[in-house]
Specification:
Blueprint: E1 3-11, H1 15-27, E2 34-37, H2 79-85, E3 88-90, E4 95-99, E5 104-107, E6 112-120, E7 124-126, E8 142-143, H3 148-160, E9 165-169, H4 173-184, E10 188-193, H5 205-217, E11 221-224, E12 228-233, E13 239-244, E14 249-251, E15 254-257, E16 261-263, E17 274-275, E18 278-280, E19 292-294, E20 299-303, E21 308-311, H6 315-333, E22 346-351, E23 354-360, E24 365-371, E25 380-387, E26 390-397, H7 401-413, H8 420-426, H9 428-432
Parallel strand pairs: 1-2, 1-6, 2-3, 6-19, 8-15, 9-10, 9-15, 10-11, 18-20
Antiparallel strand pairs: 4-5, 5-6, 7-16, 12-13, 13-14, 17-18, 20-21, 22-23, 23-26, 24-25, 25-26
Bound molecules: dihydroflavine-adenine dinucleotide and nicotinamide-adenine-dinucleotide.
The site of nicotinamide-adenine-dinucleotide (NAD) has 25 residues, from α4 and β22.
Length: 434
């Protein structure tokens, strides 16, 4: 059993680990001071590609093309970059024990790693249907999507079940992006979810009406208000049918499940303060334990703009929290201070020819505007959220770069809201003049 020591260790090798590595490089980390330990077999990459370009039937994205930091227009950090910087990438290595008092991590093969400063960047894991006690959920060809290994299995199945039937369970981010990807791959796609409309975490009923109609126009069979209750297997163990709670039975060659994710923090339970399902941090992503930081999906951090604490499961925050934590670590070592994290929430998604962005907070009254006819050649519409007389959130489908910047500015400035009628009438013009 080997023991290795590093000044800094990042546990987890996803988006936030990659952006943290770049910031370590910028701050002048010395050779052999930093190690990234990841259970994945590849250097950090832009995870959002897995549900989009990675699944395209032609011109699909493949590594090394989408290593971080290309997703935000930055330099691509291929494995050689880490070698040049003297940053040690310890791949295919799962940490199974973390002992914070002795500053020691242990891998599944029994190797130990000592650190002075630890950054927790373990991200999230999917909820599995087995956990809900759903019968037959262990059938072959039921897929989840989190890591590149999952995406490779799905790509294989897409090839082997060409022109087959796919059932997508869940109507959130994965449900919507994967239904589109499977349709583009010529599958006969049904998407099933229990909610009254898709993406209820963000969409209002009005917004969802457009996306549901658009998916139906593209040939996706949208089944709302019910859920998968059980799976029937073929003799070879592959999934054959899905039984729904409303007693409908759907044939399926493959099933893709996206019913939510939960942060991977069990290694640290009882050793750090937790809140809202994540590891509680300050505005510099320092946890309740000195010299231990948490970034990305696992961090529950102060949301300065809204005066509360939140966890965010989106890529923009994973990048920015990583940079903030590393800057804070170096500043602290030099006895300096940096500005507290002041995050403006930013989420986006792309599917078919659609592309939307959202900034701010989706609370209060909402106002929708624009062309949301699914039959339009280029639908373009948006929504604003109004709270306490101010516009606090803005959504835009089909916007230009300039218009997306304008809605981001609205969410940041929080201007006084005109009447809902005039906001609906002004539409994107309201944002453009702020
Ligand atoms: P991330 O999940 O990226 O990385 C965690 C890493 O830790 C993984 O490499 C994992 O293997 C490793 N790990 C975990 N436990 C470990 C252990 N015990 N030992 C060693 N390694 C361990 N967001 C968005 O805003 N727009 C988008 O379009 C998308 N699209 C998208 C698609 C898909 C398929 C997914 C799954 C997610 C998205 N997201 C997204 C969400 C976004 O990707 C997510 O918020 C970030 O990847 C979070 O970054 P983290 O670094 O926190 O976790
Ligand atoms: P999600 O929370 O977005 O959606 C889960 C969906 O599953 C919800 O619509 C919910 O109603 C539904 N659901 C719950 N239980 C169900 C059941 N038993 N049967 C059918 N449906 C059920 O989560 P997700 O789509 O699984 O995404 C996983 C993670 O990946 C999240 O952290 C998400 O933020 C991230 N992600 C983000 C993007 C993006 O930002 N564009 C894209 C893909 C993934």
């Amino acid at each position: 059993m080997a023991e290795k020591s590093f000044k800094y260790i990042i546990v987890g090798g996803g988006v936030s680990a990659g952006y943290a590595a770049r910031e370590f490089g910028t701050q002048g980390v010395k050779p052999n001071e930093l190690a990234i330990i990841s259970k994945e077999a590849v250097a950090p990459y832009e995870r959002p590609a897995l549900s989009k370009g990675y699944l395209f039937p032609e011109g699909s994205a493949r590594l090394p093309g989408f290593h971080v930091c290309v997703g935000s227009g930055g330099e691509r950090l291929a494995p050689e970059w880490y070698t040049e910087k003297g940053i040690t990438l310890i791949l295919k290595t799962e940490i199974v024990k973390a002992d914070l008092p002795s500053k020691t991590l242990t891998s599944s093969s029994g190797d130990t790693f000592k650190y002075e400063v630890l950054i927790i960047a373990t991200g999230s894991t999917v909820f599995r249907l087995e956990n809900f006690g759903i019968q037959g959920a262990d059938a072959k060809n039921i897929f989840y999507l989190r890591e590149i290994e999952d995406a490779d299995k799905l790509v294989e199945a897409i090839k082997s079940k060409k022109n087959g039937k796919a059932l997508v369970v869940g109507g959130g981010y994965i449900g919507l992006e994967l239904s589109a990807a499977l349709k583009i791959n010529a599958f006969d796609v049904s998407m099933v979810y229990p909610d009254p409309w898709c993406m209820p975490r963000l969409f209002t009923a009005d917004l969802a009406t457009f996306y549901e109609a658009y998916y139906i126009k593209k040939g996706v069979n949208v089944i709302k208000g019910t859920a998968a209750a059980g799976f029937v297997k073929k003799e070879n163990g592959e999934v054959k049918e899905v039984k729904l709670k409303d007693d409908r039975v759907m044939e399926a060659d493959i099933v893709v499940v996206g019913v939510g994710a939960k942060p991977l923090i069990n290694l640290f339970s009882g050793q750090v303060e937790e809140d809202k399902g994540g590891i509680k941090t300050d505005a510099f992503f320092k946890t309740s334990v000195d010299n231990v930081y948490a970034i990305g999906d696992v961090a529950t951090f102060p949301m300065k703009m809204y005066g509360d604490i939140r966890r965010v499961e989106h890529v923009d925050h994973s990048r920015k929290s990583a940079e903030q934590a590393v800057k804070a670590i170096f500043a602290k070592a030099q006895g300096k201070e940096i500005e507290p994290y002041n995050y403006l929430p930013y989420f986006y998604s792309r599917s078919f020819d659609l592309s939307w962005q959202f900034f701010g907070d989706n609370v209060g009254e909402s106002v929708i505007y624009g062309d949301r006819d699914p039959a339009s050649e280029k639908p373009k519409f948006g929504a604003y959220w109004i709270k306490d007389g101010k516009v606090v959130g803005a959504f835009l489908e089909g916007g230009t770069a300039e218009e997306n910047k304008a809605i981001s500015n609205v969410a940041k400035v929080q201007p006084p809201a005109p009447s809902p009628e005039s906001l609906a009438k002004e539409g994107i013009q309201f944002a453009s003049k702020i």
